[in-house]
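Just curious: can you write a single protein's sequence together with how it folds?
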Amino acid sequence: MIDNLTKKFPSAWEQLRDGGKETVFNFCNEYKDFLDSGKTERESSDEIIKQAKDKGYISFEDVISKGSFKAGDKIYAENKGKGVALFVIGQDSLEKGMKIVGSHIDTPRLDLKAQPLYQDGELALLKTHYYGGIKKYQWVAIPLALHGVIFNKKGEKINIVIGEDENDPVFYITDLLPHLAKEQMDKKMGEGIIGESLNVLIGSIPYNGEKEKDDAIKLNVLKLLNEKYGIVEEDFTVAELEIVPAGKARDVGIDRSMVAAHGHDDRVCAFASLKAVLEIEEPKQTVVGLFVDKEEVGSLGNTGMESMFFENVVAELLNLEGVTSHLGIRRAMANSKVLSGDVTAGFDPNYPDVSDKRNTPYIGKGVTITKYTGSRGKSSSNDANAEFLSEIRDIFNEADVSWQVGELGKVDEGGGGTIAYILANKGAEVVDCGTPMLSMHAPIELISKIDLYNTYKAYKAFYQG
C-alpha cells in the first residue's frame, strides 16, 4: 500500500513483453530508412506524402475540386514542398476541434549562400550560412553531403544529392592542425570556428582549357556541374542547397539499443506521429499529423508554424462543411487538443551539472511530457495546465505507454522553445511531448530506440483516446 504513494519512472526496456524487443527494433529500422531518405525538409515532406498516398490519402486540392468530403476520408495538404498536414476526418464537425500532433521537419545545418562558389589558395570552395543553433566547431573535419534544389534558366527544377551513395564524393570543411592552432585553442570554444570560415571544399583540379585563368579550378567545378546537371553559376542564386553530414543512420552500442543520425531533432517525433496517424481509421474527432518547417529559426515564414497555412486549410474544409463564418475557424482551433512533438535533452552523465537530476528525462525511460519550456522564468513558453496534463496522463497509463516528465536543463542554465505556444495562442490545449535525446543540434545526434517506440505509442494513444 505504501508503495502506491510514490512515483518512479523505470526503464522502458523493463516494461516490454515477450517479443517486444524485436518489435521495437523493426520499428526503428523503418525509422532509419525514413531518416536516410529525408535529410532535408523537402525530402522529408516528399517521403511523408509518399507514405500517406500508399495508405489511401488524397490531396487537399482534389477535395476542393470535388467540393465535399466525409467522415473517414484521409487528406493530405502540402505546403510549398516543405510541410504537410495529414487529416483523418472524424464523425464530428471540425468546429468541435481536432486532435493534433505537431512536429517540425527542418533541422540545424549549413545553407549555401546565394553566390557560394569561389577559388582561393588553389582550392575551390562554397560559402555557407549556418541554419539554426549549432556549435560551429562540430562541423569541421567530417564528411559532408550536398542536398537541395536548383533551377536552371529554363525554369526546370533539378534535385541534387551528392555524397550519400558509397560511390559519391563527399565534401569537407578544414580545421587547423594542433601544431599551428595555439591562438585558436586559446579562444573560447564558441569563437574557435567562426561562421564565415565554414567554407566547404568542392574541388582542386584546374580546367585544362583555360591555362591563363586565375579561377581555373572554380571553372572546372562549374564545368563538371554543367555536364551533370546542366546548370551555370547564376543558377546558384535561385537555389536552396544544404550541407548535411554524409552517411546513413547507424545503430549504437553493443546491444544496438540506440541510433546515431543527423536530424533526430525533430524527425524522430515526425516519424512517430506519421506512423501513428497512418494507423488511425474513422475517428470520432478529426485527427491531424502536422509537419512544419522553420522551427529551428523561429517558425516564421510561409512554411513555418506562424504562417496561415494550417488555418487556411482548416478554413477551406470548414467551408465545405457549410461553416462560412469566421467564428468557425476560431472555434475549431480553440476546441483542439495538441501534443507538440519535439525532442528534449536527456540526462548526460558526461555533463551532469547542467541538469536537475530529479526533473530531467533519462534515455531509455520512454517518451517525455514537458509541462513548460522557455528559459529564465519560463519566458516564451507554453505552460500546460493541470487539467490537460491529467487527461494526457490517464491516456498514456491506459495505453501502457512508458512515459516520464522532464525539463530542458536547470533553472537559469539555458532553455529552448517549440511550436507549442503558437497553437496555444489560438486557444488550443497544448503540451510538449517527445523523445529525449543526447547531443542535440550536433551534426550527429543520439536517441534510444525504446524512447522512439514509446513516442509512437503515446501519439497513437492520444489520437485514439
